[in-house]
Amino acid sequence: MTPDQQPTADSLRSQLEALRLSASERLAAAADADGVEALRSALLGRSGELTVVLRGLGGVDAAERPKIGQLANAVREELEAAISARLEVLRGSELEARLANETIDMTAPGREVRIGHLHPTMSVERDLREFFHAFGFEVFEGPEIETEAMNFEALNMPPDHPARDLWDTLYVAEPGSVDAGEPRPAEDGTILRTHTSPVQIRAMHALRPPIRVITPGRCFRYEAVDASHNFEFFQVEGLVVDHATSLADLKGMLEEFARAFYGEGTRTRFRPGYYPFTEPSAAFDISCLVCGGSGCAACGRSGWMTILGAGMVHPAVLRAGGIDPDEYQGYAFGMGLDRITLLRHAIPDLRLLMGADLRFLSQFPAGR
């Protein structure tokens, strides 16, 4: 039929039949679902081939139009059914192929569940707790925000005592002074504690002798951050108060600790030291963990490493804790938990512990 000829009922029937046969062949040739969907648009879309054929329906004799319309609807329904059937076949084949390629071996072991672990410092604290618990110590904790009275004066350091210069104290600001542009220390003497020793005073007030406690906790000092210092650090202190406690008891306790943490062959020594809250005071050294005591750069060629300070509790401190020094004696010791961790794992820089580099921290999955 030429463009100038009016379509007849017979010509439209022929076109619809040809479209049906052509669509059937093209559907059979479609290789995937995307191809079928493209063919659906080409056949049944707003500008599709069936729509183009039906545009000639207006030129058909009025008596024949209903018959041609019924035939066109039948062809449309047949095409839609054929398209749906072809899609179902192709999608089923695609699913089977994907399942074949993605086969799961049900006998294979499952993936290991990854769990976290303690930070090296916290792991050492846990081990310290376990060690001292075996010797009858209990854990006693106190606040990180303290008063000058508890942090210094109760520990035999009155306001004019020169030993206060040893602690670079961080003071809590008076409320409103920072906003006013004139920050000043709080009038009630509130500070961030510089050591965990104030907890010993609280323990003496809360408990009755005999007392055996350790006081782990976080402390703060205004210090520059370097390989061995930080403004925030951890301490563990110990306190024993009883009727007949002696320096020999203290020495024996610390020797047991050193052997448990650093090996049976570790040598120890006491050296005279100074702490305002103990008298006499001592520094506790162990044989160098690097050179074994022969002398190296790590120990300053001395063969010894200082790991903690200790001494007999000063009578003034016992009185501040509500205990009669004429009836009871006590000993105390304190160690930097970070330093103990550095020595235990031979870590050269404290800043590695304080960071969050998982490449470093993952080296200590068991904390040991």
How would you describe the overall organization of this protein?
By secondary structure, the chain is of the alpha+beta class. The chain contains twelve helices and ten strands. The protein has two domains: 9-101; 120-361, 2-Layer Sandwich (BirA Bifunctional Protein, domain 2), CATH 3.30.930. Helix content is 39%, strand content 18%. The chain has a seven-stranded mixed sheet with strand order 1-5-6-10-9-8-7, with helices on both faces. A hairpin with a 4-residue loop joins strand 7 (268-273) and strand 8. The longest helix has 37 residues, at 65-101. The model has no long low-confidence stretch (mean pLDDT 86).
What is this entry, summarized?
The protein has 368 residues and is an alpha+beta fold. The chain has 12 helices and 10 strands.
Question: What secondary-structure arrangement, pairings included, does this model have?
Answer:
Blueprint: H1 9-29, H2 33-44, H3 49-54, H4 65-101, H5 120-134, E1 138-139, E2 145-147, H6 148-151, E3 170-171, E4 190-192, H7 197-206, E5 211-220, E6 232-242, H8 247-262, E7 268-273, E8 278-287, E9 304-313, H9 315-320, E10 329-336, H10 337-345, H11 350-354, H12 358-361
Parallel strand pairs: 1-5
Antiparallel strand pairs: 2-4, 3-4, 5-6, 6-10, 7-8, 8-9, 9-10
Helix pairs in contact: 1-4, 2-4, 5-10
